[in-house]
């Protein structure tokens, strides 16, 4: 499953940065073009962290809408679906402004 490999990637980033501290929560930002369902991601997170050092750490998912800029009509549009077409003029000559993000934005550690 897509979300499982994403969770494993998050765990890799978190364990690189958390050191020996216990992690209370992990904040991630994902773009809509990644086609990640936040609820599924959180569910997978609880599965893959169960029995690991990250057990109990909360995953907070912030979604970023996909925005495109059309090179033909110059307009910017927030996409409802991950289809790279300008809704105003149907041009496919568009650039993705946002929506491709996948970042761990912050970690919250337990007080030691
Ligand atoms: Zn256009």
TrEMBL record:
One of its GO terms (molecular function) is zinc ion binding. GO terms for biological process: protein maturation. Pfam families: HypA (PF01155). The keyword Chaperone does not apply. The keyword Kinase does not apply. Ni(2+) binds at residue 2. Zn(2+) binds at residues 70, 73, 86, 89. It comes from the Bacteria. InterPro entries: HypA/HybF. Keywords: Metal-binding, Nickel, Zinc. Involved in the maturation of [NiFe] hydrogenases. Required for nickel insertion into the metal center of the hydrogenase. Belongs to the HypA/HybF family. This is Hydrogenase maturation factor HypA. The gene is hypA_2.
